[in-house]
Specification:
The structure is a single chain. By secondary structure, this protein is of the alpha+beta class. Helix content is about 25%, strand content about 25%. A six-stranded mixed beta sheet has the order 3-4-2-1-12-11. A hairpin with a 2-residue loop joins β6 and β7. Its cofactor is Mn(2+); Mg(2+). One of its GO terms (molecular function) is nuclease activity.
Length: about 325
Amino acid sequence: MTIPVLLIINGVLFLSLLLAKRWLAILPLIALVLGWKFIGVTFQIPNISSDPPESGLSVLSYNVALFSYPRDKNSEPPTQNMIKWLQDNNSDIKCFQEFYQDYSTPSRNAIKLLGTETGYEHTYQIIEGSQRNKSYGMAIFSKYPIVNEGRVFDTKRNNGVIFADIKVDKDTIRIYNAHLESMSIQSQNLNNLDGIKENYRETLGKLKRGQVTRASQLGILEEHMRNSPYVNILVGDFNDVPYSYTYFTLRKFMENAFESAGSGLGFTYNRVLFFLRIDNIFYEKPLRVFNFKTHKEVDYSDHYPISAIFDWDRPLEKTLLPENQ
């Protein structure tokens, strides 16, 4: 989790010592060389020549944190700006984690507000809550027809993976929406450094348990994707950093949209540990990605939305995924 901070520190030290003509500059340089494989997954230089195609497929992923609704049903939701931003966002496909649906309250009927009222006639949601007419979990909204759908797994605790096969003109693409096992750390413990210090032992234990669980979930997901008859796009909240087993396992057979078309550091976590990139968009070739973006101007949740635009040569043909190494 501290790798991006260490890379930045060593980079600053190297430049400072180099400008001062100190031989000690070789020490942070050695550290940067040893960590070279982590630099590409941490920082990207903008590619100004990658203009998005007119016929591209735009995909949005956003952990909306249950829209942060208050407990009092009659109080005004503090996140109407989030709903308004999502209504104005014109992505062809929108994938949500920690999605909240309340059929009994018009102002919280997210399927209607973000779906039928804004031109997204095709939706798929899973994982129902215990309250009548209310549910929480995951959702996929699409302007294009969903011809097949299903769940890869779910834990009944707001985590899981779902998929939808979406017909785009004459091609079909499978969209996976993932919310892997969370760190199970209360958000209030991450709002300030004192909370982190006080709970560090418990926090380390939860981080370890989360890593083990995500590795198991990843095995199920990987097998499912290898058996997919279509080219896959995988989006979501992975609750893991780009230096993890989860991330590098996926990179063995998928491309990462941030690495291909992102810019800057791309951090997606909106809390005191701001240097985390735990939300991702992965994709398979022959898809090409353009204009990946982390929407840091949208700070209504503890995650920032991410989006990317894809294009491909028609017709789209799936290539065989490499076997496990």
